[in-house]
Amino acid sequence: MSSGHIQGAQSTYRTMQVLRAIAGQLGKGVSLAYITQQTTLSKPTVHRLLQALMAEGMVERSDKEGYFLGPECYALGVIANQRYGLSQIASTPVARIAADTGDSAFFSLRSEWHSICLIREDGSYPIKTHVLQPGTRLPLGVGGGGIAMLAAMDDDEIEQCLEANAEECAACFPNDQREDHRPRIAECRALGYGINRGSVVSGSWGIGAAVRDCHGRVLGSLSVAAIESRMQPDRQRELGPRLVKEAQALKAKIRKAQMTR
């Protein structure tokens, strides 16, 4: 590969780092200093990339609030949703799970070594957990859905994922280190669903089941989150198989939608 191709790939990677740093704040403006810290790129490099992204409408800047994703990002997202349609397909089972359980239900999408929450529906129970919101990006293995996705991957891919996320988990998720993941993976493979026992926020528990695409690859997860008192063993045994069943049904719907395109 020529040096020009390598430099071009590096530039694309850095551009995506900047966009993800902005997106990670879920619609809030971010500063140049924050983006520099999150990406570990130099300040001049981040500034140069931001200028290019603003010129293309991918990023906007407010003097008071900082940098935001721009309208071109929204337009691309709308077009991508027309191709994949995941939000529309997954919204029905998520709403059904929330209504039936009374708790918060989610669909999260795998994005390489991370998951991104696409859909959240809250049930009727008045006390809720607010850790996971649409747009929240987490390393795979973090949260009930993240555990399920990680455990559904093959062993070599799991090792790649743990290595790729080691630095982020060490800095931001002290209860989700490599040694923490292994027993959770084993448990998930034995049960068929992942259990988060408050590793991100104490008292906020979750259960998740992996969703695969028509080729058997890990696509995302369906999950439920609630306060600890509503996630005791009896309820885990109730919710886990329910999520697995919903995940299998969602896979079939996705397959049908892909075949009709």
From TrEMBL:
Q: Name one Pfam family in it.
A: IclR_C
Q: What is this protein called?
A: IclR family transcriptional regulator
Q: Which InterPro entries match?
A: GAF-like_dom_sf (IPR029016), HTH_MetabolicPath_Reg (IPR050707), Tscrpt_reg_IclR_C (IPR014757), Tscrpt_reg_IclR_N (IPR005471), WH-like_DNA-bd_sf (IPR036388), WH_DNA-bd_sf (IPR036390)
- Keywords (A to Z) from UniProt: DNA-binding, Transcription, Transcription regulation
| Coiled coil (UniProt feature) | none
The superkingdom of the source organism is Bacteria
Please tell me whether the keyword Transcription regulation is annotated for this protein. yes
Q: Where is the IclR-ED domain?
A: 72-256
A GO biological process held by the record: negative regulation of DNA-templated transcription
GO terms, molecular function: DNA binding; DNA-binding transcription factor activity
SMART domains, A to Z: HTH_ICLR (SM00346)
| Keyword Ubl conjugation in annotation | no
Q: Which residues form the HTH iclR-type domain?
A: 9-71
